[in-house]
């Protein structure tokens, strides 16, 4: 029955490891321009003001 | 998708500019006002063909030029408003009318299989009217028309009815609404700049979870101090806009422009986008308002009428009980004798009453005679006395002030004029029309008493009205608008009460205060489907539905669906049965099975639902045609032989003695276009009445007019229709075709085919296959099938996987099924072409061998060819959406994503291995394969969510989103966006490609479904002399009991088509003839029967029989094994009962239910029972005290305070729970213990 509760751990404990927070490239849904966003930035195309951004395909 | 669009926008401008002035001949100027009299007048007067046509062309050319100019202005206007720094190439492209000409006109339905020069045969080619009709009306256009009518006309009427707001405090203050408009749709943050054009598109609203809405603005005039102030364009709310309605940005766009707006040109529109979801207001079926319906039940005969006006809704009955007739209404505490009601309305003499109701007919007079007894009994003889009598029985009025006596007389007057049959207005205290109306109701009761066949049929389609989106929204808007005015009045009263104000009072500040109520009210109603109107005591749930996008057909089928207001539990068959009067109006095949069978209906292909037309012009016409005002008539004249009452929307207005002439005159005027084409007129010979209807919600359909035994539509007309010089509306204005509603249809003689026309014929059917709807129209040769099979296919066609829309890859739906290689069917129907199913198909043409093979094909199972499956047969893609919002909380904290941690020892790895698919922003990388328990999003939620903000840094709790399904999927697309409230929304779309597997469900178009029983290697499949192996082997036992001859014909025609290289037709009541098909088969060296000689792939020997072999269109249905397969050995349990959970999504157990249990009991397998029901489920060890029978704990009985007699035993946890729950209710349960093997001599 205990499997029903999802285990959650807090990040406050601070496991070791490098947190990555680099900017990520998106593409505007209207004008197709590249937009790079950092965390917390408003979601908006810089050239046309459109607010729908698509994450770009990985090259992994 | 973005890259493609870019190419579009760059190539657009130049060729179009060049095209515009030249491409004219075939151009279709969309906004051409078809019925404008000025344009058509010359044609009407000069019927000679060449001149008329020439003028037409000229007119079009001018029109074209005008539109082109307009468009250029449009384009420049758009450019002007945009800041120059933002380059928007696609806006520069002039959206020209010429665009339609070059390519899409080639695909116009007219040209299917026909060339301009082909000879025209009226009998065969009159169906060309159908595509012309569907351009202007039909399918979903009724939704759009209804919404347009609401926005353009009804809205102003509502405001007009509530146009003044006055204050209770300051009698000098007033606010008046001068006008109301709905502007073009825009975004919420664009409200500030008025006049600026918005670039919002429906698809943006879908992606960003916004509401596709437009501001509603009013012009107001009000008092500020002593000055009169006018203000224009004051916003009072936002109106959700129906797609493709006149206010929508998609209205009148060409295919190319639609592509630029990333919208599908084939999409029917007619729905709303509310908070990112597509919502449809289903058509609602109701009994007509403002019409008298006579019913009988248990010896009671009653005539009832539901009056409905903007102010009030009420139901009035004239009821015959125990030989007496009386009037019943909710406001009256008891039934009032009908004679008193008439006396109160000023019909004082008994003789006049008698004549008004019974006329000179002795039978009716005898029946009615007894009612006058009440006068003597109650002593009511005069109007005054009658009013007193009624006034005394009025219920629930406000109590009169103490010391004041109630004035019964006045109250009765008030009640009779405003409450009873409200839809008959009382002008200048003239009660005569209302008295006549009630007398007429009484007469209907008398007639039905005398002849029970005159009782009305509630299920008759002519007695029903369909309520559309516009009407539903009108009700809603009116309610909210009234509340808005009320709130506004309250808030100004509050200020006006204060005598000394610091500044001059400006009501405008208060006006904009309640801005959100209307917006939120409309949005909430559409989003939830709950229509709660206090004023009408209306509480309807489930008015709106989510538009099903399973396939194109399911979306279209939803738009034509009609839901009934009857409750489903009633056991009466009447409302569910097929009604003869629904011929041509409602589809005869398309209804669900089971609970809602017959209650949910669908519109036929060529129907239109009327909007309201004005009554006044019609009333004038009635008098002009020689009918005399009914108020000038006395009873005996009115009801004498040969006198016909003329009813306008159920209200008697005039009397005529020449009904046939009157009717013909009226029809002539309508055919000339002098009165609305939707006004209908019928003669009812039972009641000696002429009924004229102009109200909204009637179902009607066009028919070709036949006069003097000849149809009016000739080859010449069809020629110009094909040439494009005539449109459907021209046929209407020229009186060649007219709309006929159900009542009029049943008063006409309609010939189905030209050859059936005789001297009595009044109309000719345009095309017989239009008795079916859009969904049933997909079936080839439906007229050869057993009818339930067609009904089954209607249900299954909506589950077929195929193409959904041209913009299917730019949408992100919660669940989206797409077929990888959809094909249009080899055997089409006209309907398929008309609804463009051939462009968004859902299925593939499979070569089918009807034979027995391998034994894995019994019970409708299918054998698939493995090579076909490898090559893509039945392959489909499944897209799923995962959506999250980063919510802000009251204390200022917010959800966040990100925080991916890299292993410090190996920078190519993540610290948590399940995070390996995540990118730098905390979202999975696009294109990566997600497997079970992979995280796709790293989201953290603040630990403190309370409104009181804690000091210090915000603590977060990780709540990673993990992929839970057992089958992996690719991340197809991720969008990051902000919704209207500036909340970040992330949508992740995953993709799976599935090939058919054992157990997947397939179906042909004839209600013949089956699951895959075997996927056989190609080498083992039988082959014909050309080496062709079938894609599917179907067991022949599917045919005899189902009697789907249509499927056999489909195979035959399909085979002939394949050999011939042509597409064949299986249109209902027509289609390719079997004879022609057999000829084609013979021509190509095949057996005329469609049977082939096959060789066994297993033995290499010739099969000892010929096999029916050819292509049949097969649909893959959405039920797939992968979504259902489930098993479990051990797994999660429910907390309360400790039994295994239920359902696949919770990894639940497989239930051994009551019936299975019964079998085991009957068989006596007690140990198996014990294992299934306890040991494998919720076995639990308890300590039970032998002495008191209660449960103890660790060998100690808490009640007996001892450990001596406590025993351990195993029982189901649920049983232990039951004992304790009963204990909590003060019910003591004692468990008796005994020895399993008791000793003999003890």
From TrEMBL, chain A:
Cellular compartments per GO CC: RNA polymerase I complex; RNA polymerase II, core complex; RNA polymerase III complex
Main localization of the protein described in the UniProt heading: nucleus
GO molecular-function terms, A-Z: DNA binding; DNA-directed RNA polymerase activity; zinc ion binding
SMART domains per the UniProt record, alphabetical: RPOLCX (SM00659)
Superkingdom field: Eukaryota
Region (Disordered): 1-20
Any Pfam family the entry gives: Zn_ribbon_RPAB4
Compositional bias segments (type: Polar residues): 1-13
Signal peptide: none
Keywords from the UniProt entry: Metal-binding, Nucleus, Zinc
Keyword Metal-binding: yes
Keyword set includes Nucleus: yes
Protein family membership: Belongs to the archaeal Rpo12/eukaryotic RPC10 RNA polymerase subunit family.
Record protein name field: Uncharacterized protein
Species whose genome carries this gene: Delitschia confertaspora ATCC 74209
UniProtKB/TrEMBL annotation, chain B:
InterPro entries: DNA-dir_RNA_pol_su2, DNA-dir_RNAP_su2_dom, DNA-dir_RNAP_su2_hyb_sf, RNA_pol_bsu_CS, RNA_pol_bsu_protrusion, RNA_pol_Rpb2_2, RNA_pol_Rpb2_2_sf, RNA_pol_Rpb2_3
Residue ranges of domain RNA polymerase beta subunit protrusion in the record: 138-519
Signal peptide: none
Residue span(s) of domain DNA-directed RNA polymerase subunit 2 hybrid-binding: 775-1146
Domain RNA polymerase Rpb2: start-end pairs: 283-467, 546-609, 646-707, 728-760, 1148-1229
Comp. bias regions, Low complexity: 15-33
Protein role: DNA-dependent RNA polymerase catalyzes the transcription of DNA into RNA using the four ribonucleoside triphosphates as substrates.
Protein name, per record: DNA-directed RNA polymerase subunit beta
């Amino acid at each position: 029955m205990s499997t029903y509760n999802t285990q959650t751990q807090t990040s406050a404990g601070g496991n070791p490891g490098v947190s990555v927070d680099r900017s990520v490239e998106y593409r505007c849904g209207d004008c197709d321009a590249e937009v790079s966003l950092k965390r917390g930035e408003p979601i908006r195309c810089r050239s046309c003001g459109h607010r729908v951004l698509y994450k770009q395909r990985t090259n992994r | 998708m973005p890259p493609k669009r870019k190419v579009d926008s760059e190539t657009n401008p130049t060729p179009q500019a060049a095209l515009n002035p030249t491409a004219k001949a075939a151009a279709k100027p969309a906004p051409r006002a078809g019925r404008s009299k000025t344009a058509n007048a010359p044609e009407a007067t000069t019927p000679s063909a060449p001149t008329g046509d020439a003028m037409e062309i000229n007119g079009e050319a001018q029109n074209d030029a005008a539109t082109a100019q307009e468009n250029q202005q449009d384009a420049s206007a758009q450019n002007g408003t945009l800041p120059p720094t933002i380059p928007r190439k696609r806006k520069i492209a002039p959206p020209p009318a010429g665009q339609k000409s070059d390519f899409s006109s080639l695909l116009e339905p007219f040209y299917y299989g026909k060339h301009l020069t082909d000879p025209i045969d009226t009998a065969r080619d009159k169906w060309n009217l159908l595509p012309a009709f569907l351009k202007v009306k039909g399918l979903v256009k009724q939704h759009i028309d209804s919404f347009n009518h609401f926005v353009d006309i009804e809205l102003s009427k509502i405001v007009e009815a509530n146009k003044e707001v006055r204050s209770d405090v300051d009698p000098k203050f007033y606010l008046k609404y001068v006008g109301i408009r709905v502007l073009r749709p825009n975004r919420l943050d664009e409200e500030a700049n008025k006049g600026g054009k918005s670039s919002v598109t429906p698809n943006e609203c879908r992606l960003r979870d916004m509401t596709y809405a437009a501001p509603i603005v009013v012009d107001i005039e009000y008092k500020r101090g002593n000055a009169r102030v006018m203000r224009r364009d004051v916003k009072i709310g936002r109106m959700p806009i129906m797609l493709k309605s006149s206010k929508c940005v998609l209205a009148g766009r060409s295919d190319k422009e639609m592509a630029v707006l990333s919208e599908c040109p084939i999409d029917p529109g007619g729905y709303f986008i509310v908070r990112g979801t597509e919502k449809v207001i289903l058509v609602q079926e109701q009994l007509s308002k403002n019409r008298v319906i006579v019913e009988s039940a248990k010896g009671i005969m009653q005539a009832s009428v539901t009056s409905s006006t903007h102010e009030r809704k009420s139901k009035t009955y004239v009821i015959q009980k125990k030989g007496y007739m009386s009037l019943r209404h909710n406001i009256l505490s008891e039934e009032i004798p009908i004679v008193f009601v008439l006396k109160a309305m000023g019909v004082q003499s008994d003789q006049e009453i008698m004549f008004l109701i019974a006329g000179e007919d002795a039978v009716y007079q005898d029946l009615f005679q007894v009612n006058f007894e009440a006068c003597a009994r109650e002593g009511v003889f005069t109007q005054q006395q009658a009013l007193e009598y009624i006034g005394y029985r009025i219920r629930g009025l406000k109590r009169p002030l103490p010391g004041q006596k109630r004035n019964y007389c006045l109250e009765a007057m008030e009640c009779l004029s405003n409450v009873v049959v409200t839809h008959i207005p009382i002008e200048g205290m003239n009660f005569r029309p209302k008295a006549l109306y009630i007398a007429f109701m009484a007469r209907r009761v008398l007639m039905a008493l005398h002849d029970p066949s005159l009782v009305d049929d509630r299920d008759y389609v002519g007695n029903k009205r369909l309520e559309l989106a516009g009407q539903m929204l009108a009700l809603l808007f009116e309610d909210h608008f009234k509340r808005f005015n009320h709130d506004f009045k309250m808030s100004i009263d509050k200020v006006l009460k204060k005598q000394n104000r610091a500044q001059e009072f400006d009501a405008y500040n208060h006006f904009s205060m309640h801005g959100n109520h209307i917006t939120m009210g409309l949005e909430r109603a559409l989003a939830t489907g709950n229509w709660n109107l206090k004023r009408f005591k209306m509480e309807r749930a489930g008015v709106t539905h989510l538009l099903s996008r399973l396939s194109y057909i399911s979306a279209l089928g939803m738009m034509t669906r009609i839901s009934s207001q009857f409750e489903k539990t009633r056991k009466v068959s009447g409302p569910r049965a097929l009604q003869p009067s629904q011929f041509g109006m409602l589809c005869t095949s398309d209804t669900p099975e089971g609970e809602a069978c017959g209650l949910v209906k669908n519109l036929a292909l060529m129907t239109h639902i009327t909007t309201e037309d004005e009554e006044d012009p019609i009333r004038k016409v009635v008098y002009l045609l020689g009918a005399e005002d009914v108020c000038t008539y006395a009873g005996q004249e009115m009801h004498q032989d040969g006198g016909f009452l003329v009813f306008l929307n159920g209200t008697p207005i005039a009397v005529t003695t020449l009904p046939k002439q009157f009717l013909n005159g009226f029809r002539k005027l309508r055919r000339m276009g002098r009165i609305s084409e939707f006004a209908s007129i019928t003669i009812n010979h039972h009641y000696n009445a002429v009924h004229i209807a102009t109200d909204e919600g009637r179902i009607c359909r066009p028919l070709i007019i036949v006069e003097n035994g000849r149809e009016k539509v000739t080859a010449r007309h069809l020629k110009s229709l094909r040439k494009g010089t005539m449109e459907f509306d021209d046929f209407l204005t020229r009186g060649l075709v007219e709309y006929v509603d159900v009542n009029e249809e049943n008063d006409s003689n309609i010939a189905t085919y030209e050859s059936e026309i005789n001297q009595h014929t009044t109309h000719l059917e345009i095309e017989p296959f239009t008795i079916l709807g859009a969904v049933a129209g997909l079936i080839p040769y439906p007229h050869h099938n057993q009818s339930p099979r067609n009904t089954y296919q209607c249900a299954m066609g909506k589950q077929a996987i195929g193409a959904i829309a041209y913009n299917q890859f730019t949408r992100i739906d919660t669940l989206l099924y797409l077929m990888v290689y959809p094909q249009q069917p080899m055997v089409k129907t006209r309907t398929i072409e008309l609804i463009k199913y051939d462009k968004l198909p859902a299925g593939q043409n499979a070569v089918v061998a009807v034979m027995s093979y391998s034994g894995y094909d019994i019970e409708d199972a299918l054998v698939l060819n493995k090579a076909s499956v490898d090559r893509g047969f039945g392959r489909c893609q499944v897209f799923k959406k995962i959506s999250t919002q980063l919510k802000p909380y009251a204390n200022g904290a917010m959800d966040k994503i990100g925080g991916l941690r890299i292993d410090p020892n190996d920078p190519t790895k993540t610290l948590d291995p399940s995070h390996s698919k995540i990118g730098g922003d905390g979202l999975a990388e696009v294109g990566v394969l997600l497997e079970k328990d992979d995280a796709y999003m790293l989201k953290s939620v603040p630990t403190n969510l309370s409104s009181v903000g804690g000091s210090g840094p915000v603590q977060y709790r990780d709540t990673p989103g993990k992929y839970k399904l057992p089958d992996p999927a690719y991340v197809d697309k991720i969008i990051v966006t902000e919704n209207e409230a500036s909340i970040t929304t992330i949508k992740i779309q995953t993709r799976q490609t599935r090939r058919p597997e054992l157990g997947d469900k397939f179906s042909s178009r004839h209600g013949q479904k089956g699951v895959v029983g075997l996927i056989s290697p190609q080498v083992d499949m039988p082959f014909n002399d050309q080496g062709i192996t079938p894609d599917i082997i179907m067991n022949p036992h599917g045919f005899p009991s189902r009697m789907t001859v249509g499927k056999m014909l489909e195979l035959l025609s399909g085979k002939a088509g394949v050999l011939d290289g042509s597409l064949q037709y299986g249109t209902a009541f027509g289609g390719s003839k079997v004879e022609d098909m057999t000829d084609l088969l013979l021509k190509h060296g095949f057996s005329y029967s469609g049977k082939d000689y096959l060789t066994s792939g297993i033995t290499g020997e010739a099969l000892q029989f010929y096999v029916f072999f050819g292509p049949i269109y097969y649909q893959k249905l959405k039920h797939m094994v992968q979504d259902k397969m489930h098993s479990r050995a051990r797994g999660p349990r429910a907390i309360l009962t400790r039994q295994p959970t239920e359902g696949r999504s919770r990894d639940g157990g497989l239930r051994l239910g009551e019936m299975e249990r019964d079998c085991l009991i009957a068989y006596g397998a007690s140990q198996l029972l014990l294992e299934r029901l306890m040991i494998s489920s919720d076995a639990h060890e308890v300590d039970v005290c032998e002495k008191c029978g209660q449960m103890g704990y660790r060998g100690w009985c808490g009640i007996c305070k001892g450990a001596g007699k406590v025993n351990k035993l195993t029982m189901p946890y649920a049983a232990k729970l039951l004992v304790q729950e009963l204990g909590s209710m003060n019910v003591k349960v004692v468990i008796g213990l005994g020895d399993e093997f008791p000793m003999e001599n003890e």
